[in-house]
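User: Predict the structure for this protein chain, please.
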Amino acid sequence: MPNDSTTLSAAGLRARVTVEQAEEICKKWQAQLDAGAIITKIDVSCRAWPLECLLKLETALSRAAPTVQILQIDDIIASLPTDDGFASLGFFNRIFPPSASPKIHTIDLSDNALGTRALLHIPDLLARPGLERLRLTNCGMSKEVAEALATMLMANASELKELRLGRNQMHKEGAASIATLLTQCTRLEQFGYDGSRPLREGTVSLVNGLQALVEKMGGTSSLVELDLNDCFFGSGEEDEDALPTLLQVIRASPHL
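Assistant: Here is the predicted structure, written as structure tokens:
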């Protein structure tokens, strides 16, 4: 697939990258940079990247880091042994710390297995100033990961415009952690929690978090997209049902 000159793309078959392929990709990228391209997006998604292959890209990625705004690193550790996957995630954490890549506002880490140990390898990707859009769909995140993630994001929560956490298994406890985070996301426009099975209690936590955000914002919200598919709202006839509060949030969100 052709790409514009502002993107460093590693498009190819969804398979494990070889050292030889990485070397060819790096040559292409270096040519783009030598030609004066101002890189705003890195896309290495949907291919498994062992660390030895990523190291072949380091020079080009480091050159591009100061101007990069979008980091597309979804589905990059499939089929890799656990520790190898951690090493690959840690590579991006090392190459793109806030000091070296201050313009990054969007990171997609979807379809990577992210347990609590994995989060320890990417603190500078997640807990960074200026992060506006974070996508973590289908990352196998548990309630423990949800708690750790919420803690990592809290300091810069007011900058988040998009947070996608769908198709994880964070249950009611994880939903409670995310709900606390939501109360601080004063610029939130897009929130996805579809397929993460918060059950009744977790759904109540989420909508209460959104309602607290509405109140914090003076009775209105910036939401333009809200995906809570597979949450349990009830009929609104029981006191513990989330539906009445959800309706309040919807009414307070004129751009939904």
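Residues 199-216 form the longest helix (18 residues).
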